[in-house]
Write a structure and sequence with these properties.
By secondary structure, the chain is of the alpha+beta class. It is built from eleven helices and eleven strands.
Length: about 450
Amino acid sequence: MQVSIESSTGLERQLKIGVPAEKIDQEVINRLQKAMKTVSIKGFRKGKVPLKVVKQHYGKGVRQEVVGEIVNSSFYEAIQQEDLKPVGQPQINDISDKEGQDLEFMAVFEVFPEVALKPLTKVKLDRPVAEVTDADIESMIDQLRNQQSTFKVGKKKAKDGHQVNIDYVGTRDGEEFDGGKAEGQDLILGSNSMIPGFEKGLAGLSAGEETVLKLSFPEDYHAEDLKGAAVEFAVKVNSVASKVLPKMDDEFFKLFGVESGGEEKFREDVVANMERELRNAIRTKVKNRVMNQLFELNSVDLPSALVAHEITQLKQQMVQQFGGGQQIDLSMLPDDMFREKAERRAALGVIVSEIVKVEELSPDEDQVRARVDEIASTYEQPKEVVDYYYSKPELLSSVEGVVLEDQVTELVLAKAKIKEQNLAYEDAIKPDPEPGSEA
């Protein structure tokens, strides 16, 4: 087999590959001879069809099959011979295939970039430090009770936190506008679900009272014809209801999976969940900050195939998140919408892979098991979940990839300049703003 690099521009390579005619022709003959034993052709007994006749009937198709397989295998032999690492599948061009002549073709592809890693000692970051306090626990329990709250109609005047049931009609210059009318709508004052001034204008009203609110839509309102428009809402209050929090009893605890043990067990579970959430949030923050630093420090030449792959992945994630079970054509989503994030992900993938190679890292089995156990701990039958992960190579591989990233993070932290950042629980569990976005 003859191989020559015809072009090398940036990350693109063009290989001209030649395969001896004898290899192609002999493989075609071998397959035709094998077919002689089984093919049925009119006028000949099965197994007695001459090679020449078999070739007339099947030679072209068999040759196409052989050429396709040899193009594929010879390409991979060629890149091993030339010590090249392609990204994605090659584009095969200029195939020259004639019986009795050498097979020639051109393979065009991109290669992984070489990365000159900056010293990890140049990494500087803040490591979050936080703990779950008694006040945090009480706040969380209040949130859980609020989630299960109900509303009881009474005779009080409406104020923030109350739920009012209203009828309203909106007009602009005396004319009703689309979407400005409703009957029997529930609205919690202070929720800011209506335009500015609407909820505030209902404060102090009781059931049966009416009012007219003179307001203006925000300049950035989603409906173009209402941006900044001066309008009036005629509103009637049908009822005012106060929030009623559930009692801290067994019925309430069962809503959160606590069948026995009462308030003590409920609080234990709340604390355990909060500590797990805090631990995961800090781990994610630290990893993201490390990755941000690695991205800023290292410049990477990116193969377009790698970026295209990441764009496809991001599109699929968006469809899964917002598209539900609908079949959505990914090509309808513009690539440029995902390009910046895709380029960042592709670059970090290359950088992390280079660190793994240079440092000769491999997934730590104990860390993999600990991560699987942590995932399983959120289910009712943890052992079944662990067994399931270890029975599915693709699932276990995804965990190994995360653990490998954790090991890279730990390696970087061991060499980086670290400053502790004390945070309250609520701030610690909030994700950092994405790079390029405003805080």
